[in-house]
Write a structure and sequence with these properties.
This protein is 50% helix and 24% strand. By secondary structure, it is of the alpha/beta class. The chain folds into two domains: 121 residues, Nucleotidyltransferase, domain 5, CATH 3.30.420; 32 residues. Strands 3-2-1-4-5 form a five-stranded mixed β-sheet. Helix 2 crosses helix 3. The longest helix is centred in the N-terminal third of the chain and has 26 residues.
């Protein structure tokens, strides 16, 4: 059985390289790529994560979905900062803006502006909008506010 050191120092990096090369080969073959992204801020830890997922259909009409990046976004969530982070992610995967068909994003103004400034077509996510409406509707109910407060207090004790 391989040692922990071997797995961490050699096994996982070798597997990462192999998978990355395979994904990059598929991305190069794709004629058009759709992307989804989200910027998520933790409610319990002082951190934000920015994700980027690629979606494409190959020549045999098989749908592929690959999470390309999920990394911490430090600093202010300005459109310029988000744009720079997304452009770095795309550069690491050698994806040109011309190959990006559309980006599905949340509806925040900073995300919308980041992609407009990049010159990449983007759309706000309908499910995100619906979720915001449902949450606002629920939080307008006093009984829901009390239940959430009780659950938060109970979780906080653990």
């Amino acid at each position: 059985m391989p040692s922990r050191h071997y797995i961490v120092e050699k096994g996982i990096p070798a597997l990462h390289t192999k998978v990355r090369e395979q994904v990059q080969r598929h991305l190069k073959e794709a004629t058009s790529i759709a992307l989804t992204t989200d910027l998520w801020s933790s409610g319990v830890a002082p951190m934000s994560l920015l994700s980027l997922t690629a979606h494409w259909i190959d020549s045999s009409f098989t749908l592929h979905n690959v999470v390309l990046h999920a990394s911490e976004l430090r600093g202010s969530h300005t459109s310029m900062h988000i744009r720079n982070a997304i452009e770095e992610m795309l550069a690491k995967w050698d994806i040109d803006n011309d190959k990006v068909h559309v980006v599905m994003r949340d509806n925040a103004a900073n995300m919308k502006k980041a992609f407009a400034d990049m010159g990449v077509q983007s759309l706000g996510c309908f499910a995100h909008t619906l979720q915001l409406v449902v949450i606002q509707g629920l939080l307008a109910q006093r009984s829901i506010i009390d239940a959430v407060a009780n659950c938060t207090e109970a979780c906080g004790s653990f």
